[in-house]
Automatic annotation (TrEMBL):
The lineage of its organism: Bacteria, Bacillati, Actinomycetota, Actinomycetes, Kitasatosporales. This is peptidylprolyl isomerase. Residues 28-57 are annotated as: Disordered. The keyword Transmembrane does not apply. It comes from Streptomyces mimosae. Residues 243-331 form the PPIase FKBP-type domain. SUPFAM superfamilies: FKBP-like.
C-alpha cells in the first residue's frame, strides 16, 4: 500500500519502499549550544491545533540540535523503538517553506477528516530509521505521550541524505514541531499466536511456516469481484479504529500467479502505517478497521480496491491481491 504523499515531502523522501502509507543528540530544554543563538523559531498554539511558527531573521541556527518541550503530556513515556503516531510540522528556516504538515495539504487546505475525526498523521519509530530520520525522532525518547516538542537544527544533521532530496544544504536550518498523539511498544519481529482456522471454500489456503505464511491460490478459480476477508486467528486485543497506527506482519501475493510480491516476514521486520485515512489501499482500510490486535486476517482484494488499472511496483495492472496480515500492535 503505497502511502498517500500529501504534504509529506520528507516522509516521501525517506520512506522505506513497501506497500504502505511506509545522530545529533538534543540539548536540554532551553540550552543554547553550538555557534548559533539557540532556537530561531517561536512556536505558539495549543497541542492538537496547527502550531504557528515565527522565525527570528536575526538569529542563526545552532550547530547542535536544540530541543524544547513546549507542553508536557500526561501519557506514557516514549521508549526507544516505540511506534509513534504524531501530528508534525517541519519548516526550512531560511526558505520559510514547509516540508511536512499533517494539518494541511500541499495546496494549503485543511487535511480531510473522517466522520469520527481521524485525519492523516505521521507514523514513525522513536530513534529508529523509519519513515522519519533517526536523528529527528531521537529527542522524542523519554518524552510523554501528549507532549508538544520542538526540535531545531541543521538539515545535514537532522535529515541526512534526504536534505538534498528536498533541496536543502547541510547547514540550512530546520524546525520540527511534534505533537505525540500515541505510542505503542511492539516487537518488530513478533507475530500472532493462536489456533488458525481453515480457510473458507473458494479462498486461498494458508499454511504458516518459519518464514511466514505460505499462500496457495485455488487453481482454476476466477478471482472474486468483491473484497473477501476471513479471520484466521482471533486475537483478544483492542479493536482497531480509524486513524490508528497499525503495526503488522504481512505477506502479499497476486491471485494470477500466487507469487509473493512483498513480505514483512521475509524482511524480518514488521511494518507500520495509518489505517482508515487513505494512507493504504481501500481494501486494507475496509478490511482491517474493526479487527483486533492479535488477529490474523486473510484479505482478497479486487483491483478496484487495490491499484486498479495502474501497474505498481511490479504488480501488473488489474491485479487481484491476496494478503495474510498479523495485527501485532496499534497506537
Amino acid at each position: 500500500m503505497i502511502p498517500t504523499q500529501r504534504a509529506h515531502r520528507i516522509v516521501a523522501a525517506l520512506a522505506v519502499p513497501a506497500f504502505f502509507l511506509t545522530a545529533a543528540c538534543g540539548s536540554e530544554s532551553g540550552d543554547d549550544e553550538g555557534n548559533g543563538d539557540g532556537p530561531v523559531a517561536t512556536v505558539s498554539g495549543e497541542p492538537g491545533e496547527q502550531p504557528e511558527i515565527e522565525i527570528d531573521a536575526d538569529a542563526s541556527v545552532a550547530e547542535e540540535t536544540v530541543v524544547e518541550v513546549l507542553r508536557e503530556g500526561e501519557g506514557a513515556e516514549v521508549a526507544e523503538g516505540d511506534y509513534l503516531r504524531m501530528d508534525v510540522v517541519a519548516t526550512a528556516v531560511a526558505q520559510e517553506a514547509e516540508l511536512v504538515n499533517t494539518w494541511r495539504t500541499t495546496e494549503g487546505e485543511p487535511t480531510e477528516q473522517s466522520e469520527d475525526g481521524a485525519k492523516p498523521q505521521v507514523i514513525a519509530q522513536a530513534n529508529v530509521e523509519s519513515s522519519l530520520p533517526q536523528t529527528v525522532t531521537e529527542p522524542l525518547v523519554g518524552q510523554q505521550v501528549g507532549s508538544r516538542v520542538q526540535v531545531e537544527g541543521q538539515a545535514g544533521e537532522l535529515l541526512g541524505a534526504a536534505a538534498q532530496q528536498v533541496g536543502l544544504q547541510e547547514d540550512d536550518g530546520v524546525v520540527w514541531v511534534f505533537d505525540i498523539v500515541a505510542a505503542a511498544s511492539v516487537d518488530p519481529a513478533g507475530s500472532v499466536e493462536g489456533e488458525q482456522a481453515e480457510t473458507e471454500d473458494g479462498l486461498p489456503t494458508v499454511e504458516m511456516a518459519d518464514e511466514g505464511p505460505q499462500i496457495t491460490v485455488p487453481e482454476g478459480e476466477d478471482p472474486p469481484a468483491e473484497l473477501q476477508e476471513q479471520l484466521l486467528v482471533e486475537g483478544d486485543g483492542p479493536e482497531v479504529a480509524n486513524g490508528q497506527a497499525l503495526v503488522v506482519q504481512y505477506t502479499g501475493v497476486t491471485w494470477a500467479d500466487g507469487e509473493v510480491f512483498d513480505s514483512s516476514w521475509e524482511r524480518e521486520s514488521a511494518s507500520a502505517f495509518q489505517i482508515g485515512t487513505g494512507s493504504v489501499v481501500p481494501g486494507w482500510d475496509q478490511g482491517l478497521v474493526g479487527k483486533h490486535v492479535g488477529d490474523r486476517v486473510l484479505l482478497v482484494i479486487p483491483p478496484d480496491m487495490a491499484y486498479g488499472d495502474q501497474e505498481n511496483g511490479g504488480i501488473p495492472a488489474g491485479s487481484t491481491l491476496v494478503f495474510v496480515v498479523d495485527i501485532i500492535g496499534a497506537a
